[in-house]
Amino acid sequence: LVALVTLLCFVASKAHEAYAALAGMETVITVLFLLLYLLRLDVRMRCLFWPLADIFNSVIAALFLLVVCLFAIIIRTNKGTLAGGVLGLILLVLCLVDVGLLCKKISLDKARGRSAPAK
């Protein structure tokens, strides 16, 4: 939701296209991961370890958001760009919280699948 509001702020303020492109990309990727988990497709498609892909996405998004939102706040051509930059920094914090929660959830030394020992 924060990514969508950030996108709307950047589009409404007619900010640089890179700002809107990053916010739009993060909105789409977040919706796709949400659908993946809601429809339980991560269980059906075992070819990829989805929580690790989610962590990778959040780290890359946080790095891009840091750069783009700091530029948006520093340049701040209008109030919409400033609001989009601030909301983008809030989204950055949420991405880092997501990484922390997913890292707690994942235990790489815990056995998965059929090879797990019986208890």
Automatic annotation (TrEMBL):
The keyword ATP-binding does not apply. The chain crosses the membrane at residues 27-43, 55-75, 81-103. It comes from the Eukaryota. It is found in: Membrane. It is a multi-pass membrane protein. Keywords: Membrane, Signal, Transmembrane, Transmembrane helix. Its main location: membrane. The keyword Protein transport does not apply. Residues 1-107 form the MARVEL domain. This is CKLF factor. It comes from Dicrurus megarhynchus. The gene is Cklf.
